[in-house]
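Lab channel / #folding
Pinned by the channel admin:
"Please post every new chain as: sequence first, then the structure tokens as a reply. Keep commentary short and put observations after the output so the thread stays searchable."

First post following the new format, from NK:
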Amino acid sequence: MLRSFAALTAFVAGIGGCAGLGSTLKEPGVRLDQVVVREVGVRGGNLDLMLEVDNPNAFDLRGTAVELGFGVEGSHVGNVRYADEFTVNRGGLTTLALPLRFEWAGVGTALRTALSSGDLPYEMKGQVMLQTPWGAHSVPFTREGRVPLTRVGGALSVPTGR
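Reply from TO:
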């Protein structure tokens, strides 16, 4: 009987200790570092959104997914769902390459103009999903600003008409 009570007490104390962990989680920072132009054609193209996830915690974070919507100057360019697991080391930074396929028909002239310059005015809204010792946790984020463009494979030729 005494052994059962001791085991129950230890279990309850353990659960109580884990419950406190949720309040010590500092949400990671999410920032768009750059956009890499992979391919541009007559119908659309492929971009990589280089997303930085910063871990301010004293323990590693395990990411399970990232979902976001991406826009340029008020035009929705597309949605991304990145479902590969990733780790952000304690106090560290991890960069994820999120592939985004777009079509010219849906983005109008805003993206064409932006791709011809050296940087991109953007808006993005989404969430990072984490698996923690005390369960799944979703971190919403909204960002906007200007980000540098990097072109893969040399010069970029942006189609001017449809």
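NK: Residues 5-21 have pLDDT under 50 and may be disordered.
TO: also worth noting, The chain has two helices and eight strands.
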